[in-house]
Design brief:
2 helices
Length: 71
């Protein structure tokens, strides 16, 4: 199952590399280089998302005066 947008890029890159052989030889190296760049960026995104996860929400405060109870 795909959990992050970066994983979609990884899956797309696998298809791009697989189908590179359908293109002319002069374009194959360019496609492979582009796919390698996309993969490196996607891997960096995945690594950063896991490190930044605790920073997504601000730290909790003890002030709950704005909370309203549902009746």
């Amino acid at each position: 199952m795909v959990e992050t947008p970066a994983e979609i890029i990884c899956h797309a890159c696998s298809f791009l590399k697989f189908w590179t052989g359908l293109h002319k030889e002069e374009f194959q190296a360019q496609i492979r280089d582009g796919v390698d760049v996309l993969l490196s960026v996607a891997c960096q995104m995945i690594a950063n998302q896991r490190q930044d996860l605790p920073r997504l929400l601000p730290p909790p405060t003890g002030d709950h005066s704005g909370d309203q109870e549902l009746e």
